[in-house]
Design brief:
The chain is mostly beta strands and about 120 residues long. It contains no helices and eleven strands. Helix content is about 0%, strand content about 50%. Strands 2, 4, 5, 6, 9, 10 and 11 form a seven-stranded mixed sheet that branches. The chain has a four-stranded antiparallel sheet with strand order 1-3-8-7, with no helix packed on it.
Length: about 120
């Protein structure tokens, strides 16, 4: 069993940066693949970034490549999403998700076992 709590969202100006954290409880978190997703009002929840259970291989949506970086600190049971050069279109509620027993993170929302409650990111122009 894994429980996830996101934090670090807020209001920033375009071009600014935020670092989101996904803190996990559960001794098996290090064996979970993790993904970050985001959902804006009236839109679908979309894949943003994913990371292997090992923390050595990462994946990104085309819209955030070169701007966002996902990482994990296995010892702290935490996954991060560093967001740089933020754009107004990045505004959304951001969620982290975990898939137990998986090495590679799915890109589909239905591929995950656990979800956090989300943290709001708002980017002003």
């Amino acid at each position: 069993q894994v429980q996830l709590v996101e934090s670090g969202g807020g209001l920033v100006q375009a071009g600014g940066s935020l670092r989101l954290s996904c803190a996990a409880s559960g001794r098996t978190f290090s064996t979970n693949a993790v993904g970050w997703f985001r959902q804006a009002p009236g839109k679908e929840r979309d894949f943003v970034a994913g990371i292997h259970s090992s923390g050595t291989i990462t994946y990104y949506a085309d819209s955030v490549k070169g701007r966002f970086t996902i990482s994990r600190d296995i010892a702290k049971n935490t996954v991060y999403l560093q967001m740089n050069s933020l754009k107004p279109e990045d505004t959304a509620n951001y969620y982290c998700a975990a898939r137990r027993g998986y090495v590679s993170p799915p890109r589909d929302i239905n591929g995950y076992d656990y979800w956090g409650q989300g943290t709001q990111v708002t980017v002003s122009s």
